[in-house]
Specification:
Layout lengths: L30 E6 L4 E3 L4 E9 L4 E7 L6 E5 L4 E6 L6 E10 L4 E11 L5 E8 L10 E4 L3 E4 L5 E7 L6 E9 L2 E9 L6 E8 L16 E6 L10 H6 L3 E4 L13 E6 L9 H12 L3 E6 L5 E4 L2 E4 L1 E2 L5 E2 L4 H4 E2 L2 E2 L14 E4 L8 E5 L5 E9 L2 E6 L13 H19 L9 H7 L15 H4 L1
Parallel strand pairs: 2-8, 9-15, 16-17, 16-18, 18-19, 19-29
Antiparallel strand pairs: 1-3, 3-6, 4-5, 4-7, 7-8, 9-12, 10-11, 10-13, 13-14, 20-21, 22-26, 23-27, 24-25, 26-28, 27-28, 28-29
């Protein structure tokens, strides 16, 4: 029987408590198998080949060593599971021969090898994908960076193709970025490369924090229409939206509506809804504009208290003729036709009121005035990342009047102007044209002051 005074009765290196045959010494060598990768093995210069082994023994495995020849110098040693070895291919040989020797605690040894790795030319890989914004609109000009330096850019469909990528970069770290106004949005992904193959990573969405000015297709802009009297959208608002080439959507109950679904909020404030908006809606609308949205309000009774983002005033009633105060083409010669000093007056309805120029934000742009240039009938001003457009011209009480310049000319043009505030960045410097007018920079020159920095970076 086992010797109670000898912890290893058969002297095979395995303690009696762990030995399945206490009195019979272990003379069986370990068994070694290559689990992965499968044979034959090919690699390119720069590869690190991970070799995984299965080693079993009826006793206890002491170690597994990797050598480049039988009995040669030890390249690596593993003493416990998992039995994995990484071997770097330096490209200096056409074939690499590896041997693996397993020893157990009883001194039994077995060898697997040679495991041959053949050097091949890198067949390279390709990675494709599409970059869109939060509304699934393709982003043109998004920058795709990999290997910390190589850059590609998305096309008009938001698509990109990274070609001839060394597969030694696996997994490939890809950085995708786009400028939304002056806000840089970036995401990083890892791509598992496949040799001599194309990997399509699908659609990647870049979502800015809030809204921002971004060069997108004008026809993709969504206009939420809302009438304060009904606390809902009004069908008459649809025609001028569509005439401006935009997408109409009913806001519904504004207290519960998700305003982030809209780019422009088209609000008709009716004669009988002087109390609009209440405190909760005020905050909601302010947040919408602060995040980059545009609100366009038409007001039939401006003598009541006017509450808009950045504006909290009583305006004055008026029955005066209207004068054009801007040369902005998006407004004066838009999809509804030309607006002149006489256009809106000739419709038989004039402004319901005006704002005193001294009472509006200092960076306000006047579009229409009364005969007094300090009495603003229609105007716009920026508010944080968005903008507010306000007009006292009536587009509610007489929306269906035949040939009305209010509905057929003015409304499409003011909506067109709103859309241009949202999307136009002529010189691609990260500032919308409207923002450049406000900042007194040149919207045709990306670096107005010539100091080597884009205006969008400096503002």
């Amino acid at each position: 029987g086992a010797d109670p005074f000898d912890p290893d009765s058969d002297d095979d290196g395995i303690l009696d408590g762990a030995d399945t045959q206490v009195l019979i010494a272990d003379i069986t060598a370990p068994v070694i198998e290559l689990i992965s990768p499968t044979l034959p093995l090919n690699a390119v210069s720069g590869d690190i080949v991970r070799l995984k082994l299965a080693v079993t023994d009826n006793g206890q495995v002491a170690s597994v060593v990797m050598t480049s020849s039988l009995g040669g110098d030890v390249l690596a040693t593993v003493t416990q599971q998992p039995y994995e070895f990484d071997y770097a291919i330096d490209g200096l040989n056409n074939t690499y021969n590896l041997y693996f020797t397993a020893s157990d605690v009883s001194g039994n040894v077995s060898t697997l090898g040679p495991v041959d790795i053949t050097l091949i030319t890198d067949p390279l890989a390709q990675v494709t994908g599409t970059v869109v914004d939060e509304l699934s609109r393709p982003i043109q000009g998004a920058k795709i960076t990999y290997a910390d330096a190589v850059e590609e850019f998305t096309d008009i469909a938001g698509q990109f193709s990274l070609n001839a990528i060394p597969t030694t970069l696996n997994p490939l770290a890809v950085t995708i970025s786009a400028l939304f106004g002056n806000q840089l949005v970036t995401t990083k992904i890892e791509v598992e490369l496949q040799r001599d193959n194309t990997i399509d990573i699908g659609t990647v969405e870049l979502t800015p924090k809030g809204r921002a000015y971004v060069a997108i297709d004008h026809s993709d802009l969504v206009v939420g229409h809302f009438n304060t009297y009904y606390n809902n959208g009004d069908d008459y608002q649809i025609a001028p939206i569509e005439a401006a080439g935009l997408v109409p959507r009913n806001v519904g109950d504004i207290t519960t509506a998700d305003l982030s679904k809209f780019d422009i909020l088209f609000v008709s404030k009716s004669y009988t809804s002087s109390s609009w908006p209440d405190n909760d809606v005020q905050a909601k609308v302010a947040a919408f504009v602060a995040d980059g949205g545009i609100i366009l309000m038409t007001d039939t009774r401006p003598d009541r208290h006017i509450i808009l983002p950045g504006l909290n005033k009583y305006f004055r009633l008026s029955n005066s003729s209207i004068e054009l105060a801007t040369a902005e083409e998006a407004f004066t010669n838009g999809p509804g036709g030309a607006i002149t000093d006489m256009t809106v007056d000739a419709a038989g309805r004039v402004a319901n009121g005006y704002a005193d120029a001294s009472q509006v934000p200092t960076d306000t742009v006047a579009l229409l005035t009364t005969e007094d240039i300090n009495q603003l009938v229609t105007f716009a001003y920026p508010y944080e990342s968005g903008a507010v457009i306000y007009t006292t011209i009536d587009m509610y009480d007489y929306p269906n009047e035949s040939g009305s310049a209010f509905v057929n000319t003015f409304a499409p043009n003011i909506l067109n102007y709103a859309s241009k505030l949202y999307i136009t960045d002529t010189d691609k410097d990260g500032l919308s044209d409207y923002a450049e007018i406000i900042e007194n920079t040149d919207y045709l020159i990306a670096d107005t002051d010539g100091d080597g920095l884009r205006d969008g970076f400096e503002i």
